[in-house]
Design a protein that fits this description.
Blueprint (H helix, E strand, L loop, with lengths): L2 H16 L17 E3 L2 E6 L8 H11 L9 H11 L5 E8 L2 E10 L5 E2 L12 E2 L4 H15 L7 E6 L4 H9 L5 E15 L4 H7 L2 H17 L3 E5 L2 H16 L3 H24 L3 E8 L2 E9 L6 E7 L8 H15 L4 E3 L6 H5 L3 E12 L1
Parallel strand pairs: 5-7
Antiparallel strand pairs: 1-2, 2-3, 3-4, 4-5, 4-6, 7-14, 8-13, 8-14, 9-10, 10-11, 11-12
Helix pairs in contact: 3-9, 4-5, 7-10, 8-9
């Protein structure tokens, strides 16, 4: 964000506290906003989660209709994000329904720069709004109409973070936003390295650089022959939860910048969200044992396209056996055996990902600004 936008945002934020009576969308208190109904669709903006006892079931049905959707779109993930990272009074939730059918869920939060944004960008890799793909244009039309009605002078715009290149957001909103007094911008701000997986492990190895292939095979062989390697996939809570604590301890011992981030931001969030996703069958831990000790961990999220390596850690005391690289090799081999089309490393530009054959896929930040 430019310095000018930051200064303007701070000024709007300060004024917002002085003249709250003039506010609509940005007002921190009050009830839910009046719904907007048009052509059988109903869009509503809430200040908290709806009290509809069927809301989560409707959300889950919407998830099932969107094959690109990931765990980052789930009620468990989004509610954990809002509860832990969104200050009181700053949450907004826009939904679109047609009768009893939920067609769109758009969580937003007011940030310190007086912009609305999809929350959780620091700990979430895909934040495309969950919108029924067969009703996308109608949903976005009524969402933008609702925002046009609720908009007030103190809000500078809104960001949608970590949008996929082929997202309907990037196809629909450039032409639709100007009709409601908004301008559309997008920019690639992140990348997710991914491997397009072949049919066999041997084909995968053949793709690697000759030196890299030789080293990769040597490291796995050393772990097998010299460290009594064991490789476990843990997806039951009784095994998963203790392994999560071991993984968190490994993160705590990591290089200082990752350890500090983990200690300050991630620990509480991971302890809440990972067991919940495991219980729903959406996450598992792959754990590498060397010399009779747990030595490396991959916290892996399931998706339709294949595993997504959300976080990793390893025991520095076993680094002579390259536990991190060995773990990734075994995880890739497992994904190939399961017939997965891709292995997704998620965000992070570490060089080893390219050495393992990953190609960058762009993620965009979409910015909608009032004209």
């Amino acid at each position: 964000m430019s310095l000018e936008l930051q200064i303007a945002g701070r000024m709007r934020g300060a004024l917002r506290t002085l003249v709250p009576a003039a506010l609509k969308l940005a007002h921190s208190h009050g009830g839910d906003f009046e719904p907007l109904e048009r052509d059988g669709y109903c869009a509503q903006c809430y200040r908290d989660w709806p009290d509809d006892p069927q809301f989560i079931q409707k959300w889950n049905r919407l998830l099932a209709r969107n094959k690109w959707a990931t765990a980052f779109c789930t009620p468990a993930w989004q509610s954990a994000i809002v509860d832990q990272f969104v200050p009181a009074g700053q949450f907004r939730l826009i939904t679109v329904c047609r009768g009893d059918e939920l067609l769109a869920v758009l969580p937003l939060a007011l940030n310190t720069a007086s912009m609305l944004e999809t929350p959780g960008k620091w700990v979430s890799d895909y934040l495309d709004p969950l919108v029924d793909h067969t009703e996308a244009e109608a949903c976005w039309t009524i969402i933008l109409e609702l925002l046009e009605q609720l908009w007030d002078w103190s809000v500078g715009g809104f960001f949608i973070h970590h949008v996929r290149p082929d997202s309907q957001v990037r196809r629909i909103l450039p032409g639709l936003a100007p009709k409601f007094g908004f301008t559309y911008q997008d920019k690639c701000v992140e990348r997710t390295p991914q491997i397009s997986l072949p049919g066999t492990w041997e084909e995968y190895l053949a793709r690697l650089d000759g030196h890299e292939r030789k080293e990769f095979k040597r490291k796995i062989r050393n772990a097998e022959t010299k460290a009594n390697m064991q490789w476990r996939t843990l997806n039951e809570p009784a095994e998963f939860n203790p392994a999560l604590e071991r993984a968190l301890e490994g993160m705590r011992e990591a290089e200082s910048n990752k350890a500090d981030f983990t200690e300050e931001i991630l620990f509480g969030f991971l302890r809440r969200i990972c067991p919940a996703l495991c219980a729903q069958g959406e996450m598992f831990i792959q754990e590498l044992w060397l010399e009779g000790q747990a030595s490396a961990w991959l916290l892996t999220i399931k998706s339709e396209q294949g595993p997504m390596a959300y976080n990793t850690s390893y025991d520095f005391g076993k680094r002579q056996f390259s536990p991190g690289m060995v773990s990734f090799g075994l995880a890739i081999r497992d994904a190939i055996a399961l017939g997965c089309p891709t292995f997704n490393f998620l965000r992070g530009g570490e060089e080893f990902k390219k050495r393992l054959g990953a190609q960058d896929v762009e993620l965009f930040r979409v910015k909608i600004l009032p004209e």
